[in-house]
Amino acid sequence: MNSPIELRKVIWGAVLSLLWVFTFLFINGNLVIDWTGTGNNLTPLKPLVIFVGLLVIFFFNLFYRSSAETTKLNWTVTLTMVWMSMILFFPFRTDKAGGAMGFFALIGGLAVVVLWVRFFSDEIFTSRS
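Above: the chain's sequence. Below: its structure in token form.
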């Protein structure tokens, strides 16, 4: 990373990822949006906020101008934060899909390790422009 603007992208990406993880933790699953006011057209709030948050993170990485290495680093930070929060907060033993989620947690951990090894290697060069 060559300029503080690129460091700013990684920091804001980490903040957005943390806010996205908070939507999983702190929004009640029983809340709904009543679009018409009659109770006929209900939308669950939690999946909607999760989807909108994911779109915000995606478009932030897409439209915030920086080098390709900074964008890859930001996606790696996002994946690491999501993986760590899944490891810490998902009820593997009490949920009926705990075994499958445990498998995906292991695969996600492997992806996190491979990506961070790439960034800690000394062979990454960015072009100065």
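Helices lie at 4-26, 45-63, 68-89, 98-120.
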